[in-house]
Amino acid sequence: MATFLYKLGRLAFRRRHFVALIWVALLTLAGVGAASAPPAGNSSFSIPGTEAQKAFDLLEQRFPGASADGATARVVFKAPSGEKMTDADNKATVQKTVDELADGSEVASVADPYTGNAVSKDGTIAYASVKYDVSGMELEESTKDALEDAAQQARDAGLTVEVGGDALQAVPETGATEVIGIAVAAVVLVITFGSLVAAGLPLLTALIGVGIGVSSITALASALELGSTTSILAMMIGLAVGIDYALFIVSRYRAELAEGREREEAAGRAVGTAGSAVVFAGLTVVIALVGLAVVNIPMLTKMGVAAAGTVAIAVLIALTMIPALLGYAGRRVKPAGAKGRLLGRSRKGEPKPDRPAGPPKANLGTRWASFVVRRPLAVLLLGVIGLGAAAVPAASLELGLPDDGSQPTSTTQRRAYDLLSEGFGPGFNGPLMVVVDAKGSDAPKDAFDDVAGEIKGLDGVVAVTPPAPNKGGDTATITVIPDSKPSSVQTEDLVHAIRDAGGDVEAKTGAETLVTGSTAMNIDVSEKLNDALVPYLVLVVGLAFLLLIVVFRSILVPLKAALGFLLSVMAALGAVVAVFQWGWLSGLMGVEETGPVMSMMPIFMVGVVFGLAMDYEVFLVTRMREAFVHGEKPHQAVVTGFKHGARVVTAAAVIMMAVFAGFIGSSESMVKMIGFGLAIAVFFDAFVVRMAIVPAVLALLGKKAWWLPKWLDRALPNVDVEGEGLRTAAERGSGPDEDRELVRA
Q: Which residue has the higher pLDDT, 79 or 610?
């Protein structure tokens, strides 16, 4: 592989006009496609294989025209102090609001509070339910404006009015903090390279790659039903890996220049060596993201595949466009150690005259690695204990999906949620819909009544509505109001109790009972994700383990990499629990409301963090193996790996943390939580696992770290990540025109 990539790098360097033209054309094509594509429609949230989804599908079949997936709104009214909603003036205001809402073109129905028993017992709070023909993301802006205007007119009349439900659902905004993340990345690159030109290359290529990826997602959003969160996550991951991969190759290019090689040869060798690490690091990220399909949640699968596509683009750009841009930059990208006046060196890159000559000073990476190999056991224990302590909060992990109760108190949705809880009880915000399928029953009406009677006798039930059959009389819906809030354990227990009671009724009457609704759907999603976590870990870690065996030609090094990843991801989950569930530092992170951790967080973090963790593992450890293969002793190989790789890995980790942390400013709670979780996970993995635990373990193992059974060594393909083939070719005196073979091929 190293030889092929070497030829590709030199070809891109020499044919830079052609390479640049291709990528600019792709960016233009994707941009035109995004600009001309129809707006994204409904991002369907289906959970195949769950009872809630089965009931939802049954409702669409048995209650045609009911718009089961249509948006809903609850307009909640509260009377002024000392008044009641049943007073004549307040009643007239509500009636006027209901009439105005009913005139909307996309409104399916509006329930009058006074005829639908939607006034609280003390008479101070009432609500009107609005049902729309289309989903929240498909509502016209004029419809949303009409809803807000109607609410404002009622406020002007003296009532407190708030609007809940998904009708006012908005496209999430990431805020300006992501720009700050990119600015931090730029500063780190300038410090690392000491040159604005060299620092600009990774940023430029990353932005081009993300531009192509996000534009392609936007162009396909309507056809593939991709949600807005998909493009945000693709941007987040694409920016991070795009900058990192380009950083790896530019750093190796400067190191090759420092050894006296010509620029074209240096570009080829940089792509052949660091590029090989980039390919395998990218493969692990792609495996982890595409592997999310094993969960069988279409939305999660689409997010993973879209992000994986952006990562693949980042790899291709790093391998081709970076050497092309290096060709354009020429002598403006200096050899390693020959920094310009930006960081205090002379124009020609020589030390200042007043600095005394002497042997080169060991860099910080060399000094740190030397310390670790002298005290490996102490460093290992300290790192493991520290990560273990950070992981302790993960034992209290509570999973759920966000509802209006998790919104900031500044939003009208959250205030409507609180008003409904005040007037009708906390469970009113998460009603359960029970669907009774009596098509196989001899007495459907009796079956409906039996189910309703069984549910009334359960603990934790506040109210049960009478069964509402369809026109055919073979299916009925029953609404159940719990006495606990939607995200509580008590509500989850009630859902299971209703399903158990329904099983007893089915045995007697033949009628099947299903529980659905947003609350039941959230519960089923959480359980499905929990059940899929172990198979997903086995699949992703197993495939990546095999890939790393091929890369490192070792059993213990990939095993150590996987175990280190588990430590870092558990510590990151602990940090997420501490901030978003317990409320530690919540003000600093902009978390206005604590609550359960998003159900998708553990499995998504496992997938993404595993792929990103392998970036640093591959880049850092391949330099160690390269030194070991070239004859250095194990301890010295560890130090050499840090000498060449620690600075780059540190810069890459800081950049990735800055990019992820930039998304903490998002208005979408899921994006905010993922941004924080990935940023803290990169910190733990890069600076504790890869920088401390990895060299400590390799120092303790010595030569055993690189042990591989002879039969397996013969069976594995030789991918030559270390670039040994390039050294052999140089010894044979191969000329610089080898890239013509690639052109002819």
A: 79
